[in-house]
Structures are given as C-alpha cells and as structure tokens.
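User: Can you write out an input/output pair for a complex, sequences first and structure second?

Assistant: Here is one pair. Inputs:
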Amino acid sequence: MEQRVSLITLGVADVNRARRFYEELGWRGQQMQETVFFQAGGLALVLWSRAKLAEDSGIPDAGTPGAFGGIVLAHNVRSTAEVDALVGAAERAGANVTRAPATTFYGGYAGAFTDPDGHTWEIAHNPGFALAEDGSLVLPDFGAAGPE
Amino acid sequence: MEQRVSLITLGVADVNRARRFYEELGWRGQQMQETVFFQAGGLALVLWSRAKLAEDSGIPDAGTPGAFGGIVLAHNVRSTAEVDALVGAAERAGANVTRAPATTFYGGYAGAFTDPDGHTWEIAHNPGFALAEDGSLVLPDFGAAGPE
C-alpha cells in the first residue's frame, strides 16, 4: 500500500449548504450531480450525502459508538487487482471488510473496510481519476457535461 | 483559506495497536511520545488518542449524534494571525468554534471548529512543521530525541 490518501469524503446532510460553507472560506470546486470535489494539493476533498456515503461503505449510520463516523478516506490504486490485493491485506491485518470489492456506480471498482478504531477506508480503482507518477490525484475537468 | 489539508488525525483507542495495523499495510512513520506521524504525499496521517484528540478539539466524545466523529482535519498556516483570521472567517461562515485560538501544548497556536455537519477542523500554526511554498507539509526528522 503506497503511503497516501486520494480523497477525503465528508458525509453531509445537505450538499448545497456544505458547499456554501466551504465556498465562503474561499474553496472552489466542481460539482458533479450531488457531489462536490475540491482539489486540495495531491488529493480531493469531497462533499457527498452522509446517508449515501454510509451505504456505499456498507456501514450503518446509526449514530451509536462504533457506527459510521461520517468521513471516508479513499486510497486509489491503478488496477482492480490492486483493490483486491489491498482489501485482502487489510483483512489479514485485522480490518473489518464492510464492502467486498465490486464494481461501483461510477464505473470503477472498490472495496471498503474499517480499521481497528472504526475509521473507514475505501480502496478504489477509478478509471476517471488518473493518478500521477507520485500517486497524487488530480481531478479532471468535469466540464459542462461532465462524466456520468 | 488555501485549499489544502495539512494533517488527518485519526483518534484511536490504542496507538500501538493502530500503528501495528498501518505498519502491516506497509506504512512507515515516526513516533513522538504517544503520537505516530506518517508522511502521505503533501500531508501527514496521524494516530493519536481519541480521548485526547476530542479534548484538544473542545468536543465531547459522547458517542451520540453530533458528538465527536473521531477524525480531525488540520489546516496549518504560517502565522498566529492567520489562525485568528481563519477561525474568525469560519465562525462568520457558520462554523461552531469549539476551541478559541490559543497556544498549544506543543508550542504552537491553534483553534478548532466544526463545519455545519459536525466535521472538525483545526487551524494551526506549528513552528515545528514547515510548510512548503505550495502549502504541502513535510514532516521533520524527529530524530532519536525528537522535539518535545
């Protein structure tokens, strides 16, 4: 596992409210459907529905100790095989695999696990998000139409 | 506010257990007292006591909805004046300031707030952690003795 974080996704109740808050602080991003992506150095800070984020991670958002913490750290890799390998390695290291690797709604391939303290990681291969040589993620220009 | 994240701190129950988990996945970091720092691209992923992290952020770790989520995103700046300015701007944008800017135990100056969805940010000036021209954070070599 390379030592890097590709995306930090904040689960939010209202994407537009959250976007306005970060925009008031000077952040500028791109919105694709109900998701906002801010380039932040070599990673992206993402705003997405908390309920969808929890569901997508395979974790109940129960508001109880041990339940979903509301943030997902994504580690993007260059192939589906790497997703399988890394999720397997995490499981052997004691992670709880909350979502077995599978194709995703955006045409990628990803799995999710929680670390021993319940922090959620997604291991993803997203053909739409290229990784630089050094592993940093640079968001594409979604354009007017934008990828689906 | 520049568009970047300097540190992602994961609150953990047992720093050694958490460190072993990430080391099994191939991560290599530096430990300073009870805190582990992993360089990850232009930021640091940090493991620290969840209880101390909550207390340091001024947020009760009650395990109830709206309570501490267990993760803090830090945005480091180059001066104490910037800390004051940014925490003030966040408050005007609707943030809940959970810790007014003040000197920190490590000789820095920091304040903390939660965004409209309860995600915690720390705005910090840490003279021990230099920021590159582009805002990325490169951990110092803590050495055998390490800074206090």
